[in-house]
Specification:
heterodimer; A: 115 residues; mainly beta; 6-stranded mixed sheet; 12 strands; 50% strand; B: 116 residues; Immunoglobulin-like; 56% strand; globular
């Protein structure tokens, strides 16, 4: 069975500083990994995904993520945080066994960017 | 462009009452559809998914059910709500995977359900 872990419930950074939100995964076979963001009382929005290819994936709003196969990690990063980046972030791994496209989500990490 | 709608946005229901939440997708055909529940603003629990009309798969045993009467319509129902059914319900869709193409999910705005 596949799983995703987000070891930090909360990440606090100052505006302008780099940010990292951590994610580790466990799958059998090739990992298909995603990051989503959720603002209060809203649905999730897709940020980026890793399917294959370059280990550094670039996504929306200046976010990027680094896939590390040996460490089974897919950390989300941004060089310079904005206050508006404050939100709940989810890492997800897709089920590769079916075409149903099911994904397993982590428990989420709350990012707070302080001015 | 594709759009996903959910309604109602908020709902307060007494214990034991029925439930019907509706989700519709525009601008795409043959999507995979999903119902999630999010408790206390944290992790998502997949409740149901569907790969086609009338095809429903349940992920967890519970007093909820789902139906897909049309290609782009997904309905979440209950005959009798429990207190534990309170939560934030999210509908999502994705393009059906084709070969090595893997697609992300697109989420609706959600329904906040409070069972009293």
């Amino acid at each position: 069975a596949q799983s995703v872990a987000q070891p930090e419930d909360q990440v606090n950074v100052a505006e302008g500083n780099p940010l990292t939100v951590k994610c580790t995964y466990s799958v059998s076979g090739n990992p298909y990994l995603f990051w989503y963001v959720q603002y209060p009382n809203r649905g999730l929005q897709f940020l980026l995904k890793y399917i294959t290819g370059d280990n550094l994936v670039k996504g929306s709003y200046g976010f990027e993520a680094e896939f590390n196969k040996s460490q089974t990690s897919f950390h989300l990063k941004k060089p310079s945080a904005l206050v508006s980046d404050s939100a709940l972030y989810f890492c997800a791994v897709r089920d590769t066994n079916t075409n149903a496209g099911k994904s397993t989500f982590g428990d989420g990490t709350t990012l707070t960017v302080k001015p | 462009s594709q759009t996903i709608h959910q309604w109602p946005a908020t709902l307060v229901q007494p214990v034991g009452s029925p439930l019907s939440l509706e989700c519709t997708v525009e601008g795409t055909s043959n999507p995979n559809l999903y119902w999630y529940r999010q408790a206390a603003g944290r992790g998502l629990q997949l409740l149901f998914y569907s790969v086609g009309i009338g095809q429903i798969s349940s992920e967890v045993p519970q007093n909820l059910s789902a139906s897909r009467p049309q290609d782009r319509q997904f309905i979440l129902s209950s005959k009798k709500l429990l207190l534990s059914d309170s939560g934030f319900y999210l509908c999502a869709w994705s393009v059906r995977a084709s070969g090595r193409l893997i697609y992300e999910q697109f989420f609706g705005p959600g329904t906040r359900l409070t069972v009293l």
